[in-house]
Amino acid sequence: MTYPFQLIPMATLKENGVAANSWKIHEHLGTHTDAPNHFIENQKSLDQIALEDLIVPVVVIDISDKASKNRDAELTVDDIKTFESQYGKIPDHSCVMMYSGWEAHLKDPMFVGLDSQQVKHYPGFSSAAIQFLLTQRSIAGIGVDDLSIDPGIDEKYTGHKMLFAAGKWAVECVANLSNIPKTGATIIVGAPKVGKATGGFSRIIAVW
Amino acid sequence: MTYPFQLIPMATLKENGVAANSWKIHEHLGTHTDAPNHFIENQKSLDQIALEDLIVPVVVIDISDKASKNRDAELTVDDIKTFESQYGKIPDHSCVMMYSGWEAHLKDPMFVGLDSQQVKHYPGFSSAAIQFLLTQRSIAGIGVDDLSIDPGIDEKYTGHKMLFAAGKWAVECVANLSNIPKTGATIIVGAPKVGKATGGFSRIIAVW
Ligand SMILES: [Mn+2]
Ligand SMILES: [Mn+2]
């Protein structure tokens, strides 16, 4: 159903005196934001996410150690509690990022990790962890350095549905999470303001 | 050569349990950034603009009064000097925005202003003003609330070429410039990091 990004020349400096390209694109390509209407009827579309929910504190929970040993690794409630014991409570109205190390696999088959049954294998948030963040903490959204906030083996997208039912956003395929502070930075999610969109590629910037 | 934005459903909640859309798009649609390679051979593409050049001070020079009387109005060197006498010198490494009031015409033919000879009519920076900014001030880029940094009547895109030869960027079709301070704000240009792109739609945010 999806397809790769394509850049198709429309005009070139040599022939037209101006260069410009067409893009063949869909809403869930590359580093992108998921809006709540991606899985939930009548929920917010990308343009309806409030700007104040897109510039928020960010924390990074690193599960790359266990993920390097298990491609189905999950970010669990225990991982959140261990993080908090070291870095303090997750700030209100923040974005919680999972760093799994998966960005290193971007260009190899392990990024999707399809097995012989066409089941995907990559790390994600456990649904209990998402439930915990939604009910015991105050978050604006969550993010991951791989393809999806749910682990690849969850073909029901449980976490997506819980998160979006609560009106929160997700960011996926986020790069450079190992280069920002674990806590204390602010993230700016440059989600394009496109009506009806269920998502869209986004320039995501951390400042600290 | 150009075409309007189209959002084409790929999947719907009712039929597929997930909603997602395809976008038919080109690099110079809606609120977008122009990269120097749009008009100049071997200049920077969109992904090559340094992040530190995309988060910069912003000033807004309001020429809406004269533009309301003359759709070919230009932002001139005198307008810059008048602005500076009131708000102080344009800060180094900043983005200079022209506010012409044209955003109000977004949905009527006046936005492009084609005459019977197919010549366009809308306000823009004079090429002398761009030259002044490039040589007498230090800028990161410039922007406008209408279609192009050059006035519609300039079919040679003189200002584009001068600006891009100097490796600076432009932002076009920028909304809400009348709602931010004339000076003192910081702009975050969320230009998508797409290789070879000559531009691309961008979430542009001012904070102050
Ligand atoms: Mn997605
Ligand atoms: Mn353009």
UniProtKB/TrEMBL annotation, chains A, B:
One of its GO terms (biological process) is L-tryptophan catabolic process to kynurenine. This is Cyclase family protein. One of its GO terms (molecular function) is arylformamidase activity. SUPFAM superfamilies: Putative cyclase. Gene3D superfamilies: Putative cyclase. PANTHER family: CYCLASE-LIKE PROTEIN 2. It comes from the Bacteria.
